[in-house]
Amino acid sequence: MKEGKWAMIAGSADGLGEAFTILLAEQGFNLILADFQESALKKTAAKVEKEFGVQTLTLYIDLAAEDAWKICMKLIQDMGCRMLVYCAAMSEVRPFLSLKAETLERFIDVNNRTAMLLVHAYASYLKEENKTGKILLISSLAGLMSPVYIAPYAASKAFLTSLGKSLHYELKPYHIGVSVCCAGLIHTPKLLESAPAGPVNMADPLMVAEYALKMCGKKAVCIPGWTNRLNYFVVSKLLPASLASFFVNRAMKKMYPILSR
Description:
- With 261 residues, the protein is α/β, with parallel strands linked by helices.
- The chain has a single domain (6-225), classed as Rossmann fold (3-Layer(aba) Sandwich), CATH 3.40.50.720.
- Helices cover 52% and strands 15% of the residues.
- The chain contains ten helices and seven strands.
- A seven-stranded parallel sheet has the order 3-2-1-4-5-6-7, with helices on both faces.
- Strand 4 (83-86), helix 4 (101-128) and strand 5 form a beta-alpha-beta unit.
- The protein is globular, with a radius of gyration of 18 Å.
């Protein structure tokens, strides 16, 4: 079962993770698909096996678990994976003070602890085996702009962006390509579940995933969509920090007016 090239996608059952699954399968990768949504994961795996003739291994796992990174790493080594996409994310649109301590711990466990330990183990494996490989971390513009109502999510994504940006340069001499994708709003079940108000411009997951894969290893940080790149340039380079925060937070309050009452 080890024939052909393999990749692992952590958080692959739906949304952006499903888009990465489809695109990598289209490129001929056999896939290790890790997620806690068993029925959705089975459906996604069956779809790419039928459409693209690739092999899949499904790993039903809570990526907040203490040993999740070890379980993922064991499969990566067994199959000789040459690419890791960490797409899993804990997210909640709620005022910070309404969140419980165990929820905050889950943000850290899923978005940061498991991600960092798995990236460390995978990069160490590639270096020791003298193999080339790629690591793609999925962050968010929220980590660069820090809007209200998603403080733990934004903070955890800022961590991930900093980690990936640093490793892009540190691991390059070992021919390990590392990139961070800082996406904006994406048309995913999780975003729709948060029920944003009014017309909201949401990107197609396949377009975001396609751009991220194209840029992986080439740029430390990539931002899909020219409007996102323009908006980030304006708020980070042209506007004073206080004014940039005003516009970012005003947009967030318009999306979730019930939280600002």
